[in-house]
TrEMBL record:
The keyword Nucleus applies. It comes from the Eukaryota. Belongs to the metallo-beta-lactamase superfamily. RNA-metabolizing metallo-beta-lactamase-like family. INTS9 subfamily. GO terms for biological process: snRNA 3'-end processing. SMART domains: Beta-Casp (SM01027). Pfam families: Beta-Casp, IntS9_C, Lactamase_B_6. It is found in: Cytoplasm; Nucleus. This is Beta-Casp domain-containing protein. InterPro entries: Beta_Casp, Integrator_9su, IntS9-like_C, Metallo-B-lactamas, RibonucZ/Hydroxyglut_hydro. Residues 304-433 form the Beta-Casp domain. GO terms for cellular component: cytoplasm; integrator complex.
Length: 616
């Protein structure tokens, strides 16, 4: 069994697992950190961005890059459509992948890069919410970028990366970066997905079975259990033990695995999600009371549902409930609709509201009372009529490089009464704001990450009792943000084997097949006559026809008219030979010239007459 790591970001994982001649891809996350190096895309012409000074190397010799790089403060940005860092395609041919297992909708953004134009012919499995909400995220991403086309495509800067200032000079494999796919690629890749339910067993070419269980992270998020007849592998990605809107994590089925692969732990190890949510509500409410507007960059699904609920309550407590909330996204209407019809994937508290009957999420009531309004874009019909200040705006993209958020920062950035609140942990908020500096609006960092922290992960591992634990190497050392907190690591205990891995590595996992399963015909099974050869071990000789198809072994009796080439009464010896008894048997057959000679851990018996014949 081998594990390949194709992603440089453990929170956007992509792995290849080879097991019993089956090639599985575990998630296909897309690293978007590269987009922070690009200038924001604006729906309308921006004088400020357009007039940023062009940057050139000090030696002046690389004229090919002229116009590709612009300078703002001490940062250099690429003036081009943003590019993304897809999973590594050098270690394995994607056409060889048999199955892709997707854990959650945040870990499928690279799917079109993998399935389209690569010769991929395998199967893709995901839950219904993962497919439907993943579709929304993919559509939103493509729409944001396609609505802001750029005539120029910058590529020459990649040839002089070593001459560029930080952080461009530390860009990760920039020549492998790619521009975003189109909607045709998105639709084609999503058409390959087969929807599965929790605890539904799926046969993989007769060799393996895979089964998704709830991971508690977001709607439809899964951990995957991969089993053969005698082995068990668990892939744990994007899991949460906190009580939010998704169905709770099911950890019972994950116990006693031969191999546990754990990734996608929290990106905010020193923050508590509950305290961050409380802080966000206070910051937004106080901003509104001061006559300012609150801007919250976000994805169109996930934590945003909890934000609607908690924020509306806090706004009422502080007397600013009349300030409207706007949700702006190309898929805003579909996101709100799906969240209320996917009841079976919700927590029991949310499910119970459905049977009252009532909407599982309070945002349905907010919509009815016009406290929450949704639009596809800021230029959508009716937005300018309904828009009023002060207000709260939820819109994308959290990177601040494309989407309606760019327009709102341009609109509100120079007013210190306004506030931008960062809730998504995927991007460094200082880096995200860099092209907009200097900025006057207040900035609040309230990143909310409900996935497992290190304390929860270590407790869960102790409960699951895996034989071998496989984690990204960065989880075995304190995070960069808190290098002195040595408790923020995955513990290495003596009762299990810990194997770390990193990007681009291929590691051998200590799981070897020792047993297999054969399905016997009744007639063959009736002939079994076990004889105990050792305490607890019995053997029996069998004759029959063994057929192997789709990795399933079947043993049947020989056809009535078929010829049995095995001689009846044939004995199959097993165990150690008693040399003295063997020599006596030879003598009884007239062979009396046998000589015994020690050889390694055993003996060699020479028959003199036969040795002499060979020498002649």
């Amino acid at each position: 069994m081998k594990l390949y790591c194709l992603s440089n970001d453990p929170n956007k994982p992509c792995h290849i697992l080879t097991f019993r001649e089956i090639t599985l891809m575990l998630d296909c996350g897309l690293s978007m950190q590269s987009v922070l190096n690009f200038l924001p895309l604006s729906y309308v012409y921006s004088n400020r961005l357009h007039n940023l000074p062009v940057w050139m190397p000090n030696d002046g010799g690389d004229t090919d890059v002229e116009g590709e790089l612009r300078e703002n403060g001490d940062r250099i940005f690429i003036d081009s459509l943003p590019e993304f860092c897809p999973p590594l395609d050098k270690l394995i041919d994607f056409a060889q992948v048999d199955v892709i297992l997707i854990s959650n909708y945040l870990c499928m953004m690279a799917l079109p890069f993998i399935t389209e134009g690569t010769g991929f012919q395998g199967k893709v499995y995901a839950t219904e919410p993962t497919l439907q909400i993943g579709r929304l995220l993919l559509e939103e991403l493509v729409t944001h970028i396609e609505q802001c086309p750029k005539a120029n495509f910058a590529s020459q800067w990649k040839n002089i990366v070593h001459k560029l200032p930080y952080p461009l000079n530390e860009s990760f494999k920039p020549k492998s970066w790619r521009q975003i796919y189109n909607m045709a690629n998105v639709n084609e890749s999503l058409s390959r997905i087969q929807m599965v339910g929790y605890n539904e067993k799926i046969d993989i070419y007769g060799a393996l079975q895979v089964l998704p269980t709830s991971s508690g992270y977001n709607l439809g998020s899964s951990n995957w259990i991969i089993t053969s007849d005698h082995e068990k592998v668990v892939y744990l990605s994007g899991s949460s033990t906190l009580t939010t809107h998704p169905r709770p994590m099911d950890h019972h089925a994950l116990k006693n695995a031969d191999v546990l692969i754990m990734t996608d732990l929290t990106q905010t190890p020193i923050s508590n999600p509950d305290s961050m949510l409380g802080l966000l509500c206070v910051v937004v409410s106080l901003t509104l009371r001061g006559g300012g507007n609150a801007l919250i960059p976000c994805y169109p699904s996930g934590v945003i549902y909890d934000l609607f609920e908690c924020l509306s309550i806090k706004m009422q407590d502080l007397g600013v409930q009349n300030c409207p909330m706007f949700f702006i996204s190309p898929v805003a209407d579909m996101s709100l609709a799906y969240s209320n019809i996917l009841a079976e994937w919700l927590s029991s508290a949310k499910q119970n509201r459905v049977y009252v009957p009532d909407e599982p999420f309070p945002h349905a009531l907010l919509l009815k009372n016009s406290k929450l309004k949704h639009f596809k874009h800021i230029y959508s019909e009716g937005f300018s009529t309904d828009f009023q200040e002060p207000c709260v705006v939820f819109c994308g993209h959290p990177s601040l490089r494309f989407g309606d958020v760019v327009q709102f920062i341009e609109l509100w950035g120079n007013n210190p009464r306004n506030c931008i609140v960062f809730t998504e942990p995927d991007f460094d908020y200082i880096e995200a704001l860099a092209p907009f500096q200097p900025i006057q609006m207040k900035v609040a960092h309230c990143a909310i990450d409900t996935s497992l922290n290190f304390t929860q992960a270590n407790k869960l591992i102790k409960d699951l009792k895996p034989t071998t634990l496989v984690v990204p190497e960065c989880y075995t050392q304190p995070p960069v943000s808190a290098p002195t907190l040595t408790e923020l690591v995955i513990e290495n205990n003596s009762d299990r084997t810990l194997i770390p891995y990193k990007w681009g590595e291929v590691i051998n996992l200590p799981l070897k097949r020792k047993q297999g399963q054969i399905i016997m015909e009744t007639e063959v099974a009736q002939k079994i006559n076990p004889i105990e050869v050792k305490t607890g071990i019995s053997l029996s000789a069998l004759s029959g026809a063994l057929t192997i198809k789709d990795n399933v072994h079947n043993m049947t009796s020989f056809d009535a008219g078929g010829e049995n080439k095995l001689q009846k009464g044939t004995h199959y010896e097993w165990g150690l030979v008693n040399v003295t008894e063997f020599l006596q048997k030879l003598a009884q057959e007239g062979i009396i010239d046998a000589k015994v000679e020690p050889s390694g851990n055993g003996v060699m018996i020479h028959l003199s007459s036969i040795d002499e014949e060979r020498s002649d």
